[in-house]
């Protein structure tokens, strides 16, 4: 089975009352259209996971992020491929998270984190994300 190596941004923000939110996106195309995921994408040849994540967020959301610690690595078998996904805690440095490839997005709290229909691999990282919120 083919392995696809990807990275995902767990973008966290705090409001004025110190409540924390995580950014989630809804796929607008492909086999998993309409499923919710943490934004990111494939690691290109010779690219570090952190560099790949910065590039993907720039390309998909016109936003510059600061990549922090890796909070989880998901190994998940889809029917036609194996997904290896490194998930990093991130913060927005500049930009407005414009949806250039996704059809929808939401800032979710600990209470609303499980209210969207996550893609199967992303479901497996929700416990680690909850600890950041």
Instruction: Please tally the helical runs, counting DSSP H or I stretches of 4 or more residues.
Output: 3
Approximately how much helix is present in the residues?
10-25%
Round the Cα radius of gyration to an integer and report it: 14 Å
Q: What average pLDDT do the residues reach? A: 96
User: How does the helix and strand content classify structurally?
Assistant: alpha+beta
Order of helices and strands: EEEEHEEEHH
Can you tell me the overall shape? globular
DSSP strand tally: 7
Largest sheet: 7 strands, mixed
Low-confidence stretches: none
Distance linking N and C termini: 35 Å
**Percentage beta strand:** 35-45%
Task: Give the helices and strands, then pairings.
Layout: E1 3-14, E2 20-27, E3 36-37, E4 40-42, H1 49-61, E5 64-77, E6 82-94, E7 102-108, H2 120-123, H3 126-132
Parallel strand pairs: 1-6
Antiparallel strand pairs: 1-2, 1-4, 2-3, 2-7, 5-6
Structure description:
- The protein has helices spanning 49-61, 120-123, 126-132, and strands at residues 3-14, 20-27, 36-37, 40-42, 64-77, 82-94, 102-108.
- It is built from three helices and seven strands; from the N terminus they run ββββαβββαα.
- It is an alpha+beta fold and 133 residues long.
- Strands 1, 2, 3, 4, 5, 6 and 7 form a seven-stranded mixed β-sheet that branches.
In short:
The chain has 3 helices and 7 strands; from the N terminus they run ββββαβββαα.
């Amino acid at each position: 089975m083919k392995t696809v190596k990807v990275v995902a941004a767990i973008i966290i923000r705090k409001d004025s009352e110190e409540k924390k939110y995580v950014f989630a996106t809804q796929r607008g195309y492909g086999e998993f259209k309409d499923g919710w995921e943490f934004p990111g994408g494939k690691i290109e040849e010779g690219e570090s996971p952190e560099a790949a994540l910065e590039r993907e967020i720039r390309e998909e959301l016109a936003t510059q992020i600061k990549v922090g610690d890796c909070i989880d690595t998901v190994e998940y078998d889809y029917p036609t491929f194996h997904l290896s996904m490194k998930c990093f805690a991130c913060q927005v440095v500049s930009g407005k998270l414009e949806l250039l490839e996704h059809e929808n997005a939401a800032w979710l709290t600990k209470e609303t984190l499980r209210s969207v229909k996550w893609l199967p691999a992303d479901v497996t990282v929700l416990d680690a994300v909850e600890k950041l919120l």
